[in-house]
UniProtKB/TrEMBL annotation:
Ranges where the GGDEF domain occurs: 256-390
Organism classification: Bacteria, Bacillati, Bacillota, Bacilli, Bacillales
Known EC number: 2.7.7.65
Alphabetically ordered keywords of this record: Membrane, Nucleotidyltransferase, Transferase, Transmembrane, Transmembrane helix
InterPro entries xref list: Diguanylate_Cyclase, GGDEF_dom, Nucleotide_cyclase, Rev_trsase/Diguanyl_cyclase
Species whose genome carries this gene: Sporolactobacillus kofuensis
Signal peptide range: none
Cited PANTHER family: DIGUANYLATE CYCLASE DGCM-RELATED, REGULATORY COMPONENTS OF SENSORY TRANSDUCTION SYSTEM
UniProt cross-references to SUPFAM superfamilies, sorted A to Z: Nucleotide cyclase (SSF55073)
The protein's name in its UniProt record: Diguanylate cyclase
Enzyme class at the top of the EC tree: transferase
Sequence intervals crossing the membrane: 9-30, 50-78, 99-119, 125-144, 156-177, 189-214
GO MF annotations, alphabetized: diguanylate cyclase activity
Amino acid sequence: MNALMDMKMFLSFLVTGNVVMVFLIGAYLWRHRDDDTLNTFFYGKCLQTIAWIIAIFRGGAFDLIAVSLANSLLFIGYTFEVLALLKLARSYHRSTRNLYLWFSVLYILSFHIILFFFNQAHIRIAFASVALVVILVLPVWRMTRGKQHSLLMHSMGYLYFILLLGLVARTIVALVINPSTDLDSNAASFAYGFSFIMINMTMILGGTGFILLLKEMTDKELVHLANYDDLTKTLNRRAFFAQTEYYLNYYAKKKQKLSFLLFDVDSFKCINDTHGHDIGDRVLRDLSRRIYNQIEPDHLFSRFGGDEFAILMPGMDEEASALLAERIRNEVAQAQIFLPNQPLKYTISIGLLTILPDQFTDIETLYISCDNALYGAKRNGKNGVYRGHYQEELKAEL
């Protein structure tokens, strides 16, 4: 079998794999057309598939046109794929998109200058390989770096890094080939074969990995939606109780204290009735933003419903929790929502509880005890902090 037949065999594998991938992604997108990341990846694979099909049938009188069209579509297709990877890695910005757009234009113009004035296979191969290395550097860097990325994301980054190394090797091999060699030479056959094997491997593993990464990202978003309040970006009640249960058990073993804080907005119903629910929502968003700026990263902040919120403060004793509660109350007391006529001020009342948990500590009892403390703050005139006590006898009433 000659080198040309070998190349056509490699190209056939690439086309077959890409066609199957495009078909499956297209079938999925038929019902999920709003997935921008997957759409970008899909368009990239479509362009790559068309490019490889053109490459199979290149030759004859229209060889120059086929090379021009195939390489242009292939590079644009890889650019789309890179942009999709950057979206998955949370590194996609408008400036990034514009940079890749201009680089694609520059590549196509430069490639055609080489094609029409220095039309030698080894120069074209080296130039195309270097261009692909350049566009892969950023996504490889973003995917392999960052502690927040999953093992799957890091694995995908290293897979593309292997492709990058393969392209560098392809460039080196292409540049040492005699300019007069053609596709039938052993050196050229090795260069083409090596590059196509790398591309074929990356196409199969990269495509599968991309779909898995997209599913992982979707799963994280679903978990976030299930655990967080959409308006205030705080934990919902179910997620808060589940995580609080863990902290109670953990600090019971450590024999260390933790504090629980429950509060609501004073006269919130009056705010809604007077100014409307849109203004009430603005108050809740402003409140949660201000409190997030006051609490520690390991504190649990939750919206229980309406204007009632809770904060669990692991490791905080009576003194530390009292200082934080007062700081929160004072921060909110200075808040203003700017309305067309006059600024709207609002305050909160806080019930505070500090306990040394044990194996019998009950989260429902903890909540009721702190809720009683909140009523104490209301009775004292609102806009204040009232410390309550964990009431063991409440367990019998539950």
